[in-house]
Design brief:
Blueprint lengths: L5 H4 L14 H10 L3 H7 L3 E2 L10 E2 L20 H6 L3 H24 L35 H16 L11 E5 L13 E2 L3 H8 L1 H8 L5 E4 L3 E2 L2 E2 L4 H11 L5 E3 L4 H7 L7 H10 L9 H11 L5 H17 L22 H14 L1 E5 L11 E5 L7 H4 L12 H8 L4 E5 L22 E2 L9 E6 L10 E5 L3 E4 L8 E2 L16 E8 L5 E10 L1 E6 L2 E6 L7 E9 L5 E8 L5 E8 L6 H11 L2 E7 L16 E2 L2 E2 L6 H12 L4 E6 L7 H6 L2 E4 L7 H9 L32 H4 L17 E10 L8 E9 L5 E11 L10 E10 L4 E8 L1 H4 L2 E3 L4 E3 L3 E8 L5 E9 L3
Parallel strand pairs: 3-5, 4-6, 5-8, 10-11, 10-24, 24-27, 27-28
Antiparallel strand pairs: 1-2, 6-7, 9-28, 12-17, 13-14, 13-17, 15-16, 15-23, 17-22, 18-21, 18-23, 19-20, 19-22, 25-26, 29-30, 30-33, 31-32, 31-36, 34-35, 36-37
Length: about 900
Amino acid sequence: MACATAASLAAEPALPYQDTRLDFETRAADLVSRMTLDEKGAQMQNDAPAIPRLDVPAYDWWNEALHGVARAGGATVFPQAIGMAASFDVPLMGEVANAISDEARAKHEIFAARGERGRYQGLTFWSPNINIFRDPRWGRGQETYGEDPYLTGRMGVAFVRGLQGDDPRYRKLDATAKHFAVHSGPEADRHHFDARPSARDFHETYLPAFETLVREGQVAAVMGAYNRVYGESASASQLLLKDILRRDWGFKGYVMSDCWAVRDIWENHKLVATPEEAAALAVKNGTELNCGSTYAQYVPVAVRKGLLSEAEVDDALTRLFTARMRLGMFDPPAQVHWTRIPASVVQSAEHDALARRMAQESIVLLKNDGLLPLSRQTGTIAVIGPTADDPMALLGNYYGTPAAPVTIVQGIREAVPQARVLYARGTDLVPGRDDPDATPLIEPRYLQTSAKDGERGLRGEYFANRDLSGKPVLVRTDAQVGFRWDRNSPTDNLMMRGEAGPGEGVPADGFSIRWSGQLLPPVTGEYQLEAAADDGMRVYLDGKLIIDAWENVDRMRAEHASVQLEAGRAYDIRLEYYDNERDAGVRLAWRMPGAKSTLQEAMDAAAQADVVVFVGGLTGDVEGEEMKVDYPGFAGGDRTDIRLPQTQRDLLQKLQATGKPVVMVLTTGSALAVDWAKQHLPAILVAWYPGQRGGSAVADVLFGDANPAGRLPVTFYKEDEKLPAFDDYSMQGRTYRYFEGQPLYPFGHGLSYTRFGYDGLALQRAGNSAADPITVSMTLSNQGQRAGDEVVQLYLRPVSARHARDRKTLRGFQRIHLQPGQSQEVSFKFTPARDLTWYDEQKQAYAVDPGQYEVQVGASSEDIRLRQIFSMDAD
């Protein structure tokens, strides 16, 4: 149902805000006028409480849908945002967003029918992230659509439209463009730093995608950033929120702070002295919704102290309730057709197929010396590397629970069941990390719940508290102990190679589990038992405590115990675990006597193989949002070294030295410097974090069932490239638009299993003024033996413009599918007044220089196939 009061609203409305014949703004204003000041303040925070006397249900505005409905239990997980951007496929992005919004609406109706209105159960989604990925070291760059403002705008508009729907009256969901506007790391400093780009960089790089989503995408909401911009908090900035967003762009939606960013205004930025002053400043400058608790506590205080007028509060709150009403929350469900989306869409077969298709289209073939596609007749394939069989390598961050995630080694095995596929992890993901995923889980055949029943696995008792007290809320048999939960997720967001979650009754945080049963060692000797957890864990063997780490930690960490075990004996084993808050996970693993090292396992597998598929790179465990764990090359979720981690470089070189052909598959959310691999390996693929069907999609490409056509949405730099300082927001030397060096792989790069020809470039001008459009046309032909896609890219380059500006800029792209021998005319249209502008700092306005410009059409920013110069006269 749309809201708790739907039945009562179906009758004749008693009050104006209940009258569906009135417009939403009028109804919202009437409702707000009936609230007390304290009620108003509480309604301006993300977790807004119920107001029973006004029939206002509780609502939490905090919901996530970066690449699938996140942190709300089972949902289809599509490739990470950076991967979807690599598809350069705007229509497909729209399909994905529509699927996500279908699942989100259906899940909300299920939650609401149960009276559940908490976090991650609503209709207001804090996606997409359209910050510019200006520096490859930023850990959250994986959430973006890359380094180019035009690509980001096109992908962002498609995503917003897919989320918000096409109903002229009711929105399907609310999308949120974040983080407005100059925000891309460093993560460790995000609550303190002041970004001061040049006015040209500000207007030519950091603002355009936001403007596109506001003007063209009609995005419902905008989220401010944590940092300052030109001295003002981005979440309380007159320049950003009042002057640009509202006055210049005509934004009609609502603005929210990033979480606890209003607190930063006084606590970290020290722009004001008290929380009530921070609340007043933010509301006055246009932030209606506070993720946090500052507004609820201090908006009423600010009004009573005369720092803020109640009329300003009413105006802000009216915007928020207008949005809720536009989502149908206060109307009978029969009037809101989105409420009829069936629950069956969630994790449907159609969405699973769509996730696989998007993963296929996102894969970028960086290099191929003829090794790919692999023959299906290959006898033995060694799949080696730390992310080959790790579900976390599929997901990135901000994800839901996939029903059956397919890792890359699993995908390869399913693609060629007749082949002998060997797997070895080979090495840890990064140096200095006691890798909790490196040791093999204890298999079900070596565990039993008791000698009496002999059921394989361990008996799991789940408690709704941290100390294993009272009666368990859930009891079940778990075949293995190897679980991971996403940060801030409900505990049914459990992931262990697709296993279902604990079930209802287990809280999101502060739960505990006891597993008990018997351990059945297959051979006699010394075993290395390992438990890993975030947070506390204890292991008992025959009643003796052998591992004791009962404490809060901020990451998965492993502890070991060496024990002498005899074959044929059954040992009582008990593992106790508790989660405090946020990230959660637990594993029970071992190494048997005489087990080979992970490196030796890898080398033995390679020795037996006809071809080696190395799968490595990064996961969301080492790059991400404001992380507290540092490793060599990583700091706070960002990277200090853009190379492949040393552990993996060493393994890769050993594998190549065997003389076996090696294909490298990279899982990553950012650019990696793989200079050695480019020089020495015959084939390199970038799979990004490819979502729940990532393993299937990678196998599709490896064996030729899918012809790769993904393109890099970011520049891959060489390992010895001296990048500008990470905290410098100048664009000089950054991205393909301003970088003067030679990239390892350029923006827009991506190969195919077929060849495409470009011919017949023609320009047609409607007139000579900057306002007159120019049409660019050419013929694309598939000159190879396979069907495939080509991403045709249009760049504009200044040749003799009066003022310095970017080297070139993307102003059009189309992904075209052609059969062998087929040709197609491709056309683009651009307008100089929009597409050739630079920002005149003196006039504080956009301008077009007279002079010569070059139209470039090609397969990447560096692989230009056709070009033609034209002139712009002074107006």
